[in-house]
Peptidoglycan synthase FtsI
Amino acid sequence: MSIRGEIIGRIGFVYGAVVVIALIIIGAILNIQYGQAEKWLKHEKVNFRERTITPTRGDIRARDGRLLASSVPEYEIRMDMVPEALTSDIFKAKIDSLALSLSKLFKDKSKDAYKKDLMAARYRKERYYLIQRNVTYHQLKQLKEFPIFRRGQYKGGLIVKSKNERKKPFDKLASRTIGYTFPGERAGGVGIEAAFDSVLSGVPGKRMEQRIAGNYWKPISDDATSDPVNGMDVITTIDINIQDVAHNALLRILKKHNARHGAAVLMEVQTGEILAIANLQKDENDNYYETFNFSVGEKTEPGSTFKLPVLMAAIEDNYVDITDSIDTEDGIVNYYDHTIRDSKRGGYGKITVQQVFEYSSNVGMTKIITQNYQGREKEFVEQLYAMHLNEKTGICIPGEASPYIKYPGDKLWSGISLPQMSYGYELQMTPLQVLMFYNAVANGGTMVKPRLIKAIQNHGKTVKRFHPDVIDKRIASPSTIKKAQIMLEGVVENGTARNLANLNFKIAGKTGTAQIANKKYGYKYQSKVSYQASFVGYFPAENPRYSCIVVVNEPSNSQYYGNAVAGPVFREIADKVYATRHEMHTPLDQVDAGIQELIPYSLSGNKNDIKYLLNEFNIPIDDKSAGTPWVVTTRTNDDVKFQNRLIRKQIVPNVVGMGIKDALPLLENAGLHVTFKGHGIITDQSLRANDVYQKGQHIELTLSNNF
């Protein structure tokens, strides 16, 4: 073979080999792409994933905008020790500065310890090295400016993982009502958190992550596949100042009487808005916590507080009037083998129906009901049903217990059921259900649904507002409602709650003292009887604005009557509301002239100015304010009381009761545009106190010279 032929043969062989290799490669590619596609896609899925980005949960706020529950961001800081752009020269030049910065920020290790750990992680080529957990947003901002880290994720190896922790700034206050949700598979929860979970939780986002050595997952980029939509805010009806009073007043009484648990609820009469709701229970260490919402979830025999709807049923059916006479004899009456007694030894004798209610005579109640409804038991119970006493309130949070008003013919109905029901036994209701009924009496017969939520907001803009929900415009005739109001006022003026009478405003209400039945042992266990003390009513009696119920379960230090145990909590809450609600105060031209001569009227305003003036005239001051330059003044027979008037940023101040000299600079310094009409004391303001406002917003003040 010639040299030329040999060369051509070799070239042909090379070309042929190249073609064969190329065909093999193409075949392998086609095989991987199509024949083994499913296998490699599965492999890719193992190393890549789309992670859900949890949105920031919305806030739960008090009626004045203050936070009741909020998601506080916390971060986990990790580091990719060997990103391509982080050369050895850069690392060596900056490691000392980074170690020093970390040591100063976290104060958990020395500079040398940080440097040693970082260099060891670099040597191990760790891609997901843990720097610190539970880092705050403020710390994160500083950390992003540290040497190496300021280069970012891909050049400096900084990896930030975020999570949100739910915090309650006011700790125990209304804690159970605010509630919580269960994470993961235990979906559910309690309180507002659970009821409005879909509103608060927002919409999750997505982000791609890659598996790296050590079975860690690292974000591929800082950009999300889809951005999360943060949750909206829920604005509640709770007044945090009144909530604080209710909580601590209840706590003191529970401790004083060594009680098992208790509840207190304050509600606006016309709107049904709940301003305060406290629930406290004693633990094994004798400390009290909000572990259960007794106001909503616990139904018990209410005892004497149920005498109001019972008498209203009899009055509505025209069987009795409050002026009719009832002979309670010696205070003892028997029904079959069951003896019913009055608390007064020897009984009350012959008294009116109104006095039966005021003195809380069990004998009188049983006589009224048995004499008029014996043989007509269904008529009696159906009248109770007509007043919605067998219905839930429908409050927005989960866990409300159903009331139990037994019906004639039920399995548990007996010959003593009618007399027992007449004074609040053999039936069950929750504190909130009892309060809703009394609130309807205070509201002239209009029953409104108890309400915890005012609005839903998104970035400060209201997207939904909640309005009063009327259950029944008239639960009884106007004349029956009026007689019920007279009886409730009589309880405080002449009856079992005389200790709650108030010089500044009138209270109307009813005491309750009920024996607690044990499911297994009845009303007596080991020769002991447990009691539930309660007081429910409204104020001011002549123009009802607020209704309130207080229930104390198992007081064990000798006292157990409603007026002595639950009544003081009611009184303390009412006094605080009165002190902070100028519209409840008696107009000055109606104040007794004799008192005016002793203690002069003082405008609310600057504490130092008022104090100086009162001291000049030797007028006694009871200063209960603390740490604020602005006070609300209240005149008593003996002195002028100072109470805090809180001024908060972006919250409309309450200037009612002030003079224009104090109010004008206060409002203008807050960024509001002020106009006013009239002269004298400020009696009204166009922007509602404690609402959130925007700078430049207009507010008009109305002044009156009635002082």
About this structure: The CA atoms of residues 682 and 703 lie 4 Å apart.
